[in-house]
Write a structure and sequence with these properties.
Length: 226
């Protein structure tokens, strides 16, 4: 049969999923040292820098998963927007990915914070569209085909959208790290330290739900049970 378009897309989809799951685990583990007051501020900053360098791969995977999934959906016949729609979609997601990397490159600056906010704002558009599209499709109104044996795609999109909500909160937390550490560079502040610890505790709690959701998305994509 040779190498097919679908096979290449599936391969890329698997890689993106691995970076997403592995990256989130790396950030989770690194966060313990980010809030460890026994370490010097410089050492904690180094751990925060490591977390950001790991997280950019997870962010890249998250953004790529959506166009890859929609492209494969067209080949599977569950996503009707092919042709020029796919071209426009890939261009938009390439621009989004470029924005994400620009925010990473400038992460310690005011410009980086502004770019990060813009990246976050895009999710406020993407998430409702995915939620509306997936729920509408499961109810039989489209845009995705959701007959018997096809519902798995809409379910997968729905869970992915919910995971983006959790991911958005985690993005807020990491942006808060940057702001807090810039202020801690100026002076020690127990209130800021407490805020940092509280935000990371929240992030860790969400991370467990995040991983369960990622595993569920992978299950529906691999088994296509409904």
């Amino acid at each position: 049969m040779g190498i097919t378009e679908l096979a290449v897309l599936r391969w890329l989809h698997i890689i993106a999923m691995v970076y997403w799951l592995g990256g989130e685990w790396g950030v989770f583990q690194t966060s313990y040292n980010v809030v460890n007051r026994k370490l010097s501020l410089a050492e904690r900053r180094r751990h925060m820098e490591t977390a950001y360098r790991i997280d950019i791969l997870a962010r890249t995977g998250i953004i790529l998963l959506l166009p890859l999934g929609l492209h494969m959906g067209t080949l599977w016949g569950v996503q009707p927007f092919g042709g020029s729609y796919l071209t426009v979609m890939w261009l938009l997601f390439a621009a989004w990915l470029g924005l994400c990397w620009a925010a990473f490159i400038h992460r310690e600056t005011d410009r980086g914070i502004r770019l990060t906010r813009f990246d976050e704002a895009i999710r406020f558009v993407v998430i409702p569209l995915l939620l509306l599209g997936s729920i509408s499709s499961l109810l039989g109104y489209g845009p995705f085909n959701a007959e018997v044996g096809q519902k798995w795609f809409s379910i997968k999109v729905l869970i992915f959208a919910l995971l983006l909500v959790i991911g958005l909160k985690l993005r807020f937390i990491m942006r808060e790290w940057t702001v807090i550490f810039r202020r801690l560079d100026e002076k020690e502040d127990p209130v800021l330290e407490a805020t940092l610890e509280k935000s990371i505790r929240t992030g860790r709690s969400l991370a467990y739900l995040y991983w369960i959701g990622i595993a569920t998305v992978a299950f529906f994509g691999a088994t296509k049970p409904l």
